Amino acid sequence: MNSAKELEKQIEKIKKRNQQVEADKAWEISWTRRFVLLIFTYIVIVIFFFFAQLPNPFINAIITAVAFVISTLSVPLFKKWWLSKFYRK
Questions:
Q1: Is the dihedral of CA 40, 45, 69, 39 positive or negative?
Q2: Over the Cα atoms of the chain, what is R_g?
Q3: Which of 33, 42, 51, 77 has its CA 20 to 30 A from that of 87?
Q4: 70 close to 41: Cβ distance less than 8 angstroms
Q5: What angle do CA 43, 40, 38 make, to 5 degrees?
Q6: By CB neighbour count within 10 A (0-12 exposed, 13-18 middle, 19+ buried), where does 44 fall?
Q7: Residue 45's pLDDT is what?
Q8: Is the separation of the CB atoms in 49 and 57 below 8 Å?
Q9: How far apart are CA 52 and CA 82, in angstroms?
């Protein structure tokens, strides 16, 4: 049988894990994360377009970067739908 001290340690461990999960979730849905994704995606696409010698890499990369961020914004909607239809417990 677990002693009271062991149970307290387990509860504290669970509380710490829950705090980390909450922080991860907050980051996943934050506008900061979305903005960082947009900027990094834009930079990578500009570099690719530049080396591929495509016309107007700085302007054309905007469309691709914005499309990527929009696609990431739609994922939670599909996740919610999938959970309601296919992941019933």
A1: positive
A2: 21
A3: 33
A4: no
A5: 105
A6: middle
A7: 95
A8: yes
A9: 38
Tokens of 83: 């959970």
| Residue stretches of the chain with pLDDT short of 70 | 1, 89
Integer distance in angstroms from the first to the last C-alpha of the chain? 31
34 CB-contact burial (10 Å; exposed 0-12 / middle 13-18 / buried 19+): middle
Question: Which amino acid, residue 71?
Answer: S
Contact 69, 34 (CB under 8 A): yes
Tokens of 70: 């929009």
pLDDT given for residue 36 in this prediction: 94
Round to whole Å and give the CA distance between 62 and 42: 6
CA-CA distances (angstroms) from residue 81 to 24, 58, 64, 65, 89? 22, 36, 26, 25, 15
- For 37, the token pair is 């994704």
Q: What is the pLDDT of residue 39?
A: 96
